[in-house]
Amino acid sequence: MTDNTVYTLVLVPSDEIAIQLVAFSEAVNERVDSELALGEHALPHITIVQWKDADLGLLNQQTYKLRDLTLGTLTLAGVSIVPGPDGDNWIEIPVLSTGAMRKLQEEALAATGGNGDVANGVGDRFRPHVTVGLTYSTSIELPALPPSLLRLSSDSWTPMLGLSGPNYTLTRLIEWE
């Protein structure tokens, strides 16, 4: 069964890192009028692949083996502002792309070929990041990224399936069966 739901393969941080990312997102939101804040309804994550109109049961089966891939060290690279097409500005923490992340994406795409439409940048267009805010303001003053978020070890992030919500947020995790 397919619908207009967007499912996503993400990397989810440990609780300790998630708390730090949510706190940073809150600090961003104290400085700018943001349409997005990480927290209970927008979980911190790095998107690997998003699928529109996919069969969830099949997607679950197709991606199950990916949960155990080793990721290596992930490095966050400061804070950036990425202009959107509608006058919006995405506030993101870029993540340096690694061979393990690209392999995870390639294996997910190969395993799910034909099940849904891919809805994010893949291959050369893959730009891993953690979104921490979204604003229409043109005057943006950002807080400094805490040093504790600059380098993350492989056991701090876990591949998971999730449900995408407004503004590409991750609203819910889906258990692999």
What does this structure look like?
The protein has helices at residues 15-31, 56-63, 99-111, and strands at residues 6-13, 46-52, 74-75, 80-83, 89-94, 117-118, 129-135, 151-152, 157-164, 170-174. The protein is of the alpha+beta class and 177 residues long. The chain has one domain: Cyclic Phosphodiesterase, Chain: A (Alpha-Beta Complex), CATH 3.90.1140. The strands form 3 sheets. It has a 5-stranded antiparallel β-sheet with strand order 6-2-1-9-10. Strands 4-5-7 form a 3-stranded antiparallel β-sheet, with helices on one face. A two-stranded antiparallel ribbon has the order 3-8. Strand 4 and strand 5 form a beta hairpin.
Quick overview of this protein structure:
This protein is α+β, with helices and mostly antiparallel strands and 177 residues long.
Features:
alpha+beta; 29% strand; globular; 177 residues
Estimated radius of gyration: 16 Å
Total strand segments: 10
Strand order of the largest sheet: 6-2-1-9-10
Q: CATH topology, anyone?
A: Cyclic Phosphodiesterase, Chain: A
CATH superfamily: Cyclic phosphodiesterase
What characteristic shape results from the CA principal axes? Answer: globular
Order of helices and strands: EHEHEEEHEEEEE
Would you tell me the structural class of the helices and strands?
alpha+beta
CATH class placement: Alpha Beta
Distance between the termini: 17 Å
Kindly state the percentage of residues in helix. 10-25%
Poorly predicted residue ranges = none
